[in-house]
Prior knowledge:
By secondary structure, the protein is an alpha/beta fold. It is 40% helix and 16% strand. The chain has 2 domains: 9-128, 3-Layer(aba) Sandwich (Rossmann fold), CATH 3.40.50.300; 139-407, no CATH class. It is built from 16 helices and 14 strands.
Amino acid sequence: MKYIERALERKFLRMNDFFKVLLLTGARQVGKTTMLQHLAKGTGRRYVSMDRADYRDLAERDPVLFFQTFPPPLLIDEIQKAPKLLEQIKIMADESEEKGQFWLTGSQHFSMMRHVQETLAGRVGILHLYPFSQAEIEGRLPVEIPDFSISSLREKSAGKKPPLTEEIFRRIWTGGMPQVQETDEELRSLYFSSYIETYLFRDILEMGEIRDTVRFMKFLRASAALTGQQVNYATLAEASDISQPTAKNWLQLLSGLGIIYLLQPYFNNELKRLVKSPKLYFCDTGLCAFLSFWPTPETLMAGAASGHYYENYVLMELIRNFSASPQKAEFSYYRDSRKNEIDIVIETGGELHPLEIKKSASPDSREIRKFKLLENPIIPTGSGGILCMAPEPLPLDEKNAIIPSWIF
Length: 408
């Protein structure tokens, strides 16, 4: 398979000139190792995987001897499996002023991240890689800072042919995992089945977090059924035959492994009576569709959950875009006790950008009235609008627009 350039490469290389250690996190099989091996070509950087039992044993038994055997510059894959290396990496980083000595990959499980942050504080730069974005698949790089102003939207859409609804739902159903991009329906199904059993179950068993894979599989499917919705721990617990505290722990585990994304509710000191539960999304819509037994893109598009899947897809496309852009962004959603809801609130550049997501080519423009709920004297509200399947961007007022989701 031809290498597909990743939008995160630019930021990673910039950080490599600034930090002594870089950690690339993300779910299994999203392309972390492939990207770093591609960037390491011709540099003399050696690759060592902690999936290998002999390397892992040496790393845990004698970290000093490990680095005598494998001196930097070094790419260490799945660093969470050899946490004892981190202390020695700290010592070696402090002994040298050279940048980019160590490239690490690993899952973002909270225990590993806490260990990294405590041990390598001030020495490590951390980035998160997601499955392919649509821009990466289409080769539309570099990814620019997402801008929701009507002038920017018109510039981005100029000369582009809008995809059909069927094409969008094929993208959603296929997902962004690299291995399924050029496969048929049968191989895609076999891949996801193998992915769950070979990678996901193996990781959770090795971490000792979960022993009952039957209940955990039920929990995965229950989570997929709730994509795009507010988390309901009682529903997840009942469907999986587990307790609510266990459901909460398992959901955090899936988030740490990069399988799901928990969108937190928006909060500031000016706004009261807001909800506390996050909304649940899958980082890869293809895996979510597989878990929910949608056999084809057509059945998914016609199904009752199609709007939730479209929302999941649009949100993750925005998150991927911002993760690779120079500008930091915080994502949340707004809901109050009166059930007023704004699907996405992006805080970036000192402004709030409210966004609604609608699986429609002609959404109701009255949806933007809710954006006034965000008005406060501390953070101004910037451009926003309704992300949808419209063929072209159109202004709704001086700040908001109809935004074709295929632009990003």
